[in-house]
Amino acid sequence: MSTSRQLHSVIDAFGKQGWHCDQVEGRDVITTAFEAHHTHIHLHAQAFTNLNALSIVAESPMSFDEERERYALELIMRSNKQLTLGNFEYDLDRSLIVFRITNVFEKEVYDADIISSMVHCAIAELDRIVPLAGVINRTADDLLEDISIPLLLEREDLLPPVPEYDGEEEEEL
User: Fold this and answer.
1) pLDDT of 42 higher than 70
2) Digit-coded pLDDT (tens) for 96-136
3) What phi and psi, each to the nearest 5 degrees, are found at residue 161?
4) What are phi and psi of 101, to 5 degrees?
5) Model's pTM, two decimal places?
6) What would you report as the CA-atom Rg of the chain, rounded to the nearest whole angstrom?
7) Most-buried pick from 6, 61, 138, 160 (CB within 10 A)?
8) Residue 88 to residues 60, 95, 160: CA-CA distances in angstroms?
9) What pLDDT, on the 0 to 100 scale, is given for residue 12?
10) Domain extents in the chain
């Protein structure tokens, strides 16, 4: 199977960013991995040629025991309420926190800036939620009932640092 124009544009966009990726044989899918601030992220991008759509899926391993799982699922669901783009999931079978974002493009050649933004968004969102899930895992059994997921979501001390603007690059408007 040859690479579709859509997936080829994704591979080119990754190359422009200096991101290594591997194509999954026989599918319009590429895979890669990133080291984020808080976690290792496995990422795959899948082109849906019949829809002219691209889905970016970022995953990070995180397992919960039976007592903590309900708190983790609440964290993930409440996090989704705050999102404008994309969504969180928890893969119960593989013990993975997942962030998925999809875009439908007008042209067969996808816009590299949009692709890069989707990847950055997926990494940032997953890197934001993983340390909060870690708090749930580290909470002592006798204190679990005291966890307030809404308050946990307000914590800013665990957010990854935001790169500072050095003033040398000009912003496009």
Assistant:
1) yes
2) 999 999 999 999 899 999 999 999 999 999 999 999 999 99
3) -65, 145
4) -135, 135
5) 0.89
6) 18
7) 6
8) 11, 13, 18
9) 96
10) 5-153
For the segment 69-82, the average pLDDT, to the nearest whole number, is 96
> To the nearest whole number, what is the mean pLDDT of the chain?
92
Backbone angles phi and psi of 150, in degrees to 5:
-55, -40
CB 21 within 8 A of CB 115: no
**Of 24, 17, 15, 65, nearest in space to 42 by CA:** 24
Both tokens of 172, joined, read 């496009």
Contacts of residue 1, defined as CB under 8 A and 6 or more positions apart, other chains included, come to 26, 27
In this structure, what token pair is assigned to residue 79?
């996090």
Could you identify the residue written with the tokens 């002219």?
Answer: 52
Written as six digits, the tokens of 108 are 């067969």
Q: How far is CA 71 from the centre of its chain?
A: 20
